[in-house]
Predict the 3D structure of the following.
Amino acid sequence: MLGLTLALYGAGTWALLRSHARDELDHRLEEDLGRAVRGAAVAADGTVWWRNPAEFARRTSDPSRGHWAEIWSGEGRLLLDGATSQPLELGPVPSTHELHAEPRSRRIDGRRVRVMARLQPIDGQLFAVRVAISEEPMHHRLGDLLKGLAAAFPLMLGLAALGGRAVLGRALAPLAEMARRAHRISAERLSDRLAVPEDGGELAQLAAAFNEAFARLEQSFGQLQRFTADASHELRTPLTALRSVGEVGLAPGKSAAEYREVVASMLEEADRLTRLVDALLQLSRAEAGRLALHVERLDLGALACDVAQQLAVLAEERGQQLACDSCARAEIDGDRVVLRMAVMNLIDNAIKYGRVGGRVELATTTRDDGAIDVAIRDDGPGISPEHHERVFDRFFRVDRDRARVPGGAGLGLALARWAAEAHGGRIELESTPGAGSTFRLVLPAAAR
Ligand code: ADP
């Protein structure tokens, strides 16, 4: 590009100078014309002669510096001519066209000359006067300029290339450093960061963007590691229980009823293990985006009451009243199985954590913005504000020892939140410690 720019610049300069030089020659032609007219005189017999013959007399044999003048009669006869160098045939009698045309560049006898002819009065009579001037000096000067430009061109290009390389090298050095650092960052060294240049330029923005990406990666990686550790821990608890119950069963001298109890106990632990593995599987599939939703039109209020009815036995066991209010039409487009699972986890929690002998209420309403809202309210211990966000994290339990009693692994709310978000909705939590909790499943209403 630089080469092209330089070439264009050179060509432009050359063309401009040539045009200027031609203008200057034309100006001198005008002067020569004036000098010829003033310098010529007409005798009484009609002959024409130079008043000052030295004006157009031969002064040099160098044809490249010549001036020429001719005076023609109206009948087309050459009456007088003069030249400051070797004489030159400027052509036949000037035509009417030539007498009115702009000066012209011509090549005569191998010499480049600029020629102009005009009709001029000399001593009261009209004559065709033709003057010419050599263009050779102009072409020499332009040729020299062209040679200079041609010689400077590769030099400038070379200098620009070297300069460009040096500047780019300096500008890109931080990029090379970034690449080296990035190579060193691995799963084990995710806390490493790229150096951010202090100038705040594009490279600094790039480094900052990479660092943010690394921070997010580090966070996800940490989450993954915690998830694996938590999952192993959760799986170990029922396995240990299974093992210890089995060992108790192996002790000699047990009655048939005692053996039955041991087996029932082991089955219970196996059940818990199955539920846990199912939940884990569902969650990991959901997060990998491999759980396809089978969307159909359904009434969310009716679905919630249906689930509540199914769980009524659990509420009864805890002496709780379970009320469901679903009179509002609450149609949405969603996956029945996934939404059942979400609502079931929420009602199950309300029953598990609700007061013994208390009340669990379900209410489905349509919000002003058209969203469908299923509220599940309990009168349990509530959740303190600092835990509102974290209860949705996997394996999080507010009170680990207390929560183990109802048997949760801390996956229910994570699954419920995923289900809501997969349907373009969310779960909202309102709770004051000591005054119960309300979980709201808010989903967009079905398009009409
Ligand atoms: P879990 O299987 O332990 O119930 P969840 O993900 O469903 O797991 O809930 C996470 C934690 O949030 C629970 O362990 C409990 O501490 C708290 N929690 C959930 N629902 C309620 C509720 N209705 N009242 C009080 N605490 C709750």
